[in-house]
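TICKET #2291
ISSUE: user wants both folds in one file
ATTACHMENT 1:
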Amino acid sequence: MDAMDRAEHLQWAKGRALGLLDSGDIAGAVTSMLSDLEHRDLRDHPGIEIGKMQMLTGLLTSPEKARDWITGFN
């Protein structure tokens, strides 16, 4: 199987995170997204640090805010 390119990997990561979010696991969704962004073309994405800061300060505790953060990646 060929490795996913950046866009494919990002869509896959969003899908996994949103699946967790839809099941009610907000922390798991955020953690999943952060973990899955280890793709060679994404690991320096500024959204990773923003997400970490928001998670640590309690700003990603609602489903709506977590969804906005996850779907906001491009």
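ATTACHMENT 2:
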Amino acid sequence: MATKFRGMGVSQRDVRIRLIDCFVNAVYVYDDGKYVVTLNYKDGAETVKSEEIAEAFGSTTDTVAPHLNP
């Protein structure tokens, strides 16, 4: 499934929307500012916590990809 996105530029808004529609199952945002993202995965869904995302990127997610804002 992921091969259909090869060669597509993520600078295009419609491509970003298609990626999110394909890979993101749900996003839960809590009052304390924490969130959980559930991704579509090959054998179901995989949950990723905000702390895991920050650890993986060495940063908070608000500074990871600011250029993706429309």
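RESOLUTION: both attachments delivered.
EXTRA DETAIL ON ATTACHMENT 2: The helical segments are 13-23, 50-57.
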